[in-house]
């Protein structure tokens, strides 16, 4: 998180990576004040996806905290270049699949990118646009490796 701009403070609830407790969901002043700060952190991480030097950390943090941000999927879908960056991360590992020489770091990055795409594909506001897009054509190759015999 050291790559974030100093003007965007890291809220303590974001750093802890734990879902909000039922008592904090009640709408107290403290939780209401933290919500915009959490979203600001998510927005910065989404912006970081388009920067190759910041992408690995952004993938990791967004993937770990995707359950916390209810509007992460629309933010990912509607942010310029974000889906392309996720697809680029996935496609970049294709040469390492045959022969199988995929490093652990590359494997983690692609798994995090796939988790974020799954977030977009499962959200009610982005599911239909995602299905109407051509993202599946980029995932076809990897689906046969991960799920032999799949028809994606």
TrEMBL record:
<dbReference type="GO" id="GO:0030014">
    <property type="term" value="C:CCR4-NOT complex"/>
</dbReference>
<protein>
    <recommendedName>
        <fullName>Cell differentiation protein RCD1-like protein</fullName>
    </recommendedName>
</protein>
<dbReference type="InterPro" id="IPR007216">
    <property type="entry name" value="CNOT9"/>
</dbReference>
<feature type="region of interest" description="Disordered">
    <location>
        <begin position="1"/>
        <end position="34"/>
    </location>
</feature>
<dbReference type="GO" id="GO:0006402">
    <property type="term" value="P:mRNA catabolic process"/>
</dbReference>
<dbReference type="InterPro" id="IPR011989">
    <property type="entry name" value="ARM-like"/>
</dbReference>
<dbReference type="Pfam" id="PF04078">
    <property type="entry name" value="Rcd1"/>
</dbReference>
